[in-house]
């Protein structure tokens, strides 16, 4: 069993993208951080990013079929994709929604998430530190 850390559109450009909002950590740094945390926890971790909604939905189906825990930053899809929401509704293992920025301190359209009501927990605004926090919680709440 591997925890899937799934990242949506534009997150591959972390470090380059609006650093005043998302910080200077690159996507490669984020992958390394998640893998390092997984190794510390003895938790296999697979980190992926896509700009394509259908690919994300396929990964969520994979997580549903394999009962894999998920850390999901669906990025902008969070705010408008019913299709991603419906894929999340099929997840069977615990999962955590993460946002790097504090979406409640930004534009009003970012305050609503179609996913939060389905997630076991939500971490927003703690920067990339939200990912290791989510992984630690999943390690404690997932049957191995
Ligand atoms: C984000 C917040 C979203 O509103 C935005 O569209 C993103 C990133 C975050 O991690 O803070 O792309 O999910």
Overview of this protein structure:
Strands 2-1-3-4-5 form a five-stranded parallel sheet, with helices on both faces. The chain has 144 residues and is of the alpha/beta class. The longest helix has 15 residues, at 27-41. It is 39% helix and 16% strand. It has helices spanning 19-22, 27-41, 53-66, 77-80, 82-88, 130-141, and strands spanning 3-7, 45-49, 70-73, 95-99, 121-124. The site of 1,3,4-trihydroxy-5-OXO-cyclohexanecarboxylic acid has 10 residues, from loops.
What key attributes describe this structure?
alpha/beta; 5-stranded parallel beta sheet; 6 helices; globular; binds 1,3,4-trihydroxy-5-OXO-cyclohexanecarboxylic acid; DHquinase_II_sf; 3-dehydroquinate dehydratase; lyase; amino-acid biosynthesis; 3-dehydroquinate dehydratase activity
Q: How large is the radius of gyration?
A: 14 Å
What would you call the structural class? Answer: alpha/beta
Query: What share of the residues lie within helices?
Result: 25-40%
- Taking the alpha carbons of the first and last residues, their distance comes to 7 Å
The low-pLDDT segments are none
Protein name: 3-dehydroquinate dehydratase
Family: Belongs to the type-II 3-dehydroquinase family.
Binding site for substrate: 73, 79, 86, 100-101, 110
Pathway: Metabolic intermediate biosynthesis; chorismate biosynthesis; chorismate from D-erythrose 4-phosphate and phosphoenolpyruvate: step 3/7
């Amino acid at each position: 069993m591997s925890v899937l850390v799934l990242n949506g559109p534009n997150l591959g450009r972390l470090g380059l993208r609006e650093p005043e909002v998302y910080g200077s950590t690159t996507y490669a740094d984020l992958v390394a951080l998640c893998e390092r945390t997984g190794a510390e926890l003895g938790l296999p971790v697979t980190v992926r990013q896509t700009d394509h909604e259908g690919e994300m939905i396929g990964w969520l189906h994979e997580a549903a079929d394999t009962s894999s825990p998920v850390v999901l930053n669906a990025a902008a899809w969070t705010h408008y994709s019913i299709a991603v929401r419906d894929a999340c509704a099929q997840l069977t293992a615990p999962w955590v929604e993460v946002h790097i920025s504090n979406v409640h301190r930004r534009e009003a359209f970012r305050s609503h998430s179609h996913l939060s009501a389905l997630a076991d927990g939500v971490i927003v605004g703690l920067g990339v530190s939200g990912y290791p926090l989510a992984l630690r919680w999943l390690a404690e709440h997932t049957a191995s």
